[in-house]
Amino acid sequence: MWELKKEKGVPVYVGIMELILANIQSGKLAPGERLPAERKLADYFQVNRSTVVHALDELVSLGWIVRKQGSGTIVNEGKWGIATTPRTDWRRYLEQNAFSKTSPFVKKIEERLKTHGKTSLDVYTGELPLELIPSFDFPPLSWKQFLEEEEQDDLGYLPLRESISKEIAKEYGFKLPNESLLITSGAQQALFLILQVLLKNGDSVAIEDPSFLYALPIFQAAGIRLYGVSMDDEGICLEDLERTIRQQRVKMVMVNPSFQNPTGKTMTVNRRKKLVELCQKHQIPIIEDDVFGQLSFISSEKIPPLKKIDPENVLYIGSLSKILGSTTKIGWLSAPDSVTKQLAEARKMMDFSLSIFPQMLANMALTDDSYTYKIRKLKEEVEKRAQKVFALLDSFTEWEVQRPEGGFYLWARWTKGPLKPKEWDFFIQEGLLIAPSFLFSEQKDSIRINFSRIDDEMLEALGEKLKNITNKIAG
Fold it and tell me: Which H or E run includes 207?
């Protein structure tokens, strides 16, 4: 009667609940019958008493048992509050929800922003500050004009696809055919479609280590296994990548070669060519995330997209959200025509339709006469902030940094080894909200700073806070 069969993946307290409930429903435990004492049950099940208490508390809340002073725990005699039919244990399902798992450190950052937002420096948030986002004047449009717009098919608004293709050609000197471009609701929707259509549960994907992909729950939710591959100053290490491909039967390689998130590193031209050759050799497609490509401080010749080197084997993801704000939610995916059509068809079946409204606004911004000028001024300001934050961090001997060449992230490594949990809390206490390396990897010695969020007035405060934190860790 009290023999507990522990199932893999089922919390022990849930197993205890199900056993007691089964005994009640089968009649082995009669209404009004007293259950053994908590310590006795713990002995029967070979678990901590707290686990038994947890299970009993849940059954009390469901109405199956009651606790009476001096009488112990008994099976409920009345009908009030009792679930007369078996109930779905939604908690077990929710515990498997990959999207609900938030890092305790991130929760602390969010709490700090709520309670002490004005006294904190937020260099954690992964977007431009509002004052830097370019502003455009749009002509007045009636609702009827939106309804009458007919230039959208399954791939998205045709004028926007044409404008994106022109921008890529102007920036990098190669063309993305309109029929190969799929407009998405941001870069993450492009990734989601790839996972749903081109991969299956249990497939292996190689990514850079560290990588922002490590933090995304969509991989866990889809059952995709991620394998991190180390990086050096030129980008992803190809020897390690080939070893991983062979050992883990990798189906896809995902990289962020330009101004990588979180390290800010830029893959060299030579490494890009060799990466393409390696993946061609193993017949493995590459997913290229180029969302920071429009925020380059260096010549475009130094950052040729992998898509330009190998148009057929590379799926290319871009986005306007990094320069026009996260609420824009406009991204794109370029793939071989057959793949693009399959992805578009899958999105249609999932009913992930894309509103014409943000697409028309994005196209108006891209075709605005002032667009080129405003993006150039944005890059100049972001680069200026990058150099000042770099100079500040570089003045600390305890932190190792690289000069940013684009994007808006700076990666600083603590030179004295991994940081302890209490040392990470110094950042929260001081109100310097950074992204710790353990969000992107198993590394625990580095921080990511969004330098675009630090203007001249904030620079001194950044220096003071970092000085205090450095002294606390070192001391």
Answer: strand 204-209
85 lies in a domain?
A: yes
Contact 436, 447 (CB under 8 A): yes
Residues 355 and 382 in one domain: no
286 shares a domain with 214: yes
Give me 192's structure tokens: 């989601």
Q: What is the pLDDT of residue 349?
A: 84
Q: Tokens in use for 364?
A: 């108006």
Hunting for tokens 């684009």 — which residue is that?
406
pLDDT band at 81 (very low <50, low <70, confident <90, very high): very low
Q: Where residue 350 sits, what CATH number does that domain have?
A: 3.40.640.10
For residue 336, which of 307, 293, 364 has the smallest C-alpha distance?
307
Please state the pTM of the whole predicted model: 0.79
Out of 368, 383, 417, a domain closes at: 368
Beta pairing class for 72-75 and 65-68: antiparallel
Q: What is the pLDDT of residues 17-34, one digit of tens each?
A: 889 988 887 778 888 889
Would you state the structure tokens that stand for residue 208, as one six-digit string? Answer: 């850079």
- 3-class SS at 268? coil
Domain count, the chain: 3
End-to-end CA distance of the chain: 58
Does residue 20 share a domain with residue 78?
Answer: yes
Each residue's pLDDT tens digit, 350-367: 867 788 888 988 999 999
**Cα 167 to chain centroid, rounded:** 27
CA 54 – CA 22 distance, rounded (Å): 17
Q: Three-state secondary structure along 238-254?
A: HHHHHHHHHHHCEEEEE
Residue 133, domain member (yes or no): no
Examine the domain organization and report whether 326 and 424 are in the same domain.
no
Q: Domain containing 408: what range?
A: 99-126+373-474
Express each pLDDT in 90-110 by its tens digit.
555 555 565 656 788 999 999
Same domain, 359 and 302: yes
